[in-house]
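Section 5: illustrative case.
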């Protein structure tokens, strides 16, 4: 079922999320279903469980072109449980991010361009996946939510924070 999205200021967004230990728990299946449904009915490209007020290490990345991210690549949603990642190169890139928990704001954030992610899938099986560019960015944004961080914490200069109205003017230019 579609859930309400926790907004900046909610304490759940500032807690370190708990690792999943029981991959067969009905509550986990319900959480995943709720996350997929909530993300699908938003124009976001990723969601972390704390954003629907569930402090667990589960995230979904689901890049698709939307009005918020017109250039995003199309991909099937990937559910990642207890994800960890490492950078495959030191190379970082700065680009605009937004967050369903922080409406009407965009900011420039530096992220690793190439990463390798280890996670459990919905069946509890270990998976490894290499991500780059936009999708690697989405992952690192969602991963931060599991650490109790939001993307504004990664902004190097407050001048890199702008309103969504100005952002749309910028990308239309
Ligand atoms: Zn977010």
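Designed sequence:
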């Amino acid at each position: 079922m579609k859930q309400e999205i926790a907004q900046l200021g909610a304490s759940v967004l500032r807690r370190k999320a708990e690792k999943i230990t029981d991959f067969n728990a009905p509550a986990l299946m319900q959480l995943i279903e709720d996350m997929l449904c909530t993300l699908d009915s938003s124009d976001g490209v990723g969601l972390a469980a704390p954003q629907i007020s569930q402090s667990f290490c589960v995230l979904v990345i689901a890049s698709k072109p939307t009005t918020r991210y017109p250039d995003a690549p199309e991909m099937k949603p990937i559910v990642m449980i207890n994800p960890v990642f490492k950078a495959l190169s030191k190379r970082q890139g700065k680009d605009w991010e937004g967050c369903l928990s922080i409406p009407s704001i965009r900011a420039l954030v530096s992220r690793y361009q190439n990463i390798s992610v280890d996670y459990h899938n919905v069946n509890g099986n270990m998976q490894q996946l290499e991500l780059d560019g936009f999708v690697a960015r989405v992952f690192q944004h969602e991963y931060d939510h599991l650490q109790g961080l939001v993307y504004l914490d990664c902004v190097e200069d407050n001048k890199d924070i702008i309103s969504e109205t100005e952002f749309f003017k910028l990308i239309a230019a």
